[in-house]
Write a structure and sequence with these properties.
The chain has 225 residues and is an alpha+beta fold. 40% of the residues lie in helices and 14% in strands. Strand 1 (27-33) and strand 2 (36-39) form a beta hairpin. It is globular and about 50 Å long.
C-alpha cells in the first residue's frame, strides 16, 4: 500500500470534516485496483491523525475486522463502476434536511447541474447493514455522481477521491438552493438547467475540481508540512 494513497484518504477525510460535511459518522475511500480499495480509519473523519492508516478492503468478500458496516456500499459501487476511483459517505446538513422530506435537489444552479436532472433517493431511513441492501443501493446509484439517503446523508463518487469530495460539497450546496427554493413557494415553477446547458456547465475543465479541492484541503497538516 503506497503512503501517497494513505495520505490522500486522510487528507480527504479531514477536508470533509472541516467543511462540516461529516461529523462523528462518515467514511471515504480510494480505489487501489480492480479488486481492492483503501477506506479511512473507522473514527470521526476530522479527527484522523497524520500517519493514521486506513484499511484495505476487497471489492468482493466479507469486510475485514474493524471496518465499518456501511463500507459495503463502497464495495458494491466499485464492483459495478470500474470508472469510479473514489467514494464519500457523508452527512451534509442541507442534504440531511432535504432528504428527510423525501426530496433531492433539481439542477437549479451550476453546482446542481452535476447531478442533473436530480440525484436518486434511497427511500429508507434505517441503517444499512446488509450486502443485499448495499447492492440495491448501488443499483439505484447507477452511473450518476450522487445519491441521497432519506434523512441519513449522501453518497458521492468520482473518477478520483478528490472529485468525490468536491461532489459532496456541490451536492450539499445544491440541497441548500433547493431548500431555499421550496421556502419561496416557487420551486415548481422556477427555471431548471436544460440538458444542453448541463452539457456545457457540468464539466471539470478550467481546474474546476482542482480549485475546490485546494479550498477544502487548505491548511491540512500533511499538505503544509
Amino acid at each position: 500500500m503506497s503512503e501517497e494513497r494513505q495520505t490522500l484518504v486522510r487528507v480527504a477525510a479531514r477536508a470533509l470534516g472541516r467543511a462540516g460535511l461529516v461529523h462523528a459518522y462518515g467514511h471515504c475511500s480510494a480505489r487501489i485496483d480492480a479488486d481492492s480499495f483503501l477506506v479511512c480509519a473507522p473514527r470521526p473523519m476530522g479527527l484522523i491523525e497524520p500517519g493514521e492508516a486506513g484499511a484495505v478492503v476487497p471489492v468482493d468478500g466479507p469486510l475485514p475486522d474493524g471496518v465499518l458496516g456501511e463500507v459495503r456500499i463502497h464495495q458494491q459501487i466499485y464492483k459495478r463502476r470500474p470508472d469510479v476511483g473514489g467514494i464519500c459517505r457523508t452527512m451534509p446538513p442541507h442534504a440531511m434536511a432535504l432528504s428527510a422530506l423525501g426530496k433531492t435537489p433539481k439542477a437549479r444552479h451550476g453546482f446542481g447541474s452535476y447531478f442533473a436532472p436530480e440525484p436518486p433517493l434511497w427511500d429508507d431511513p434505517l441503517l444499512l447493514r446488509s450486502d443485499d441492501q448495499a447492492a440495491a443501493l448501488a443499483d439505484l446509484f447507477g452511473d450518476g455522481r450522487a445519491l441521497l439517503m432519506r434523512g441519513n446523508g449522501a453518497i458521492t463518487a468520482g473518477d478520483t477521491l478528490e472529485e468525490a469530495v468536491v461532489f459532496a460539497w456541490y451536492l450539499n450546496d445544491a440541497c441548500r438552493v433547493e431548500l431555499e427554493a421550496l421556502k419561496t413557494g416557487l420551486a415548481d415553477t422556477g427555471p431548471l438547467f436544460t440538458p444542453e446547458q448541463v452539457k456545457v456547465r457540468a464539466v471539470g475543465t478550467g481546474r474546476i475540481y482542482e480549485r475546490m479541492w485546494e479550498y477544502l484541503t487548505a491548511g491540512d497538516p500533511e499538505l503544509s508540512a
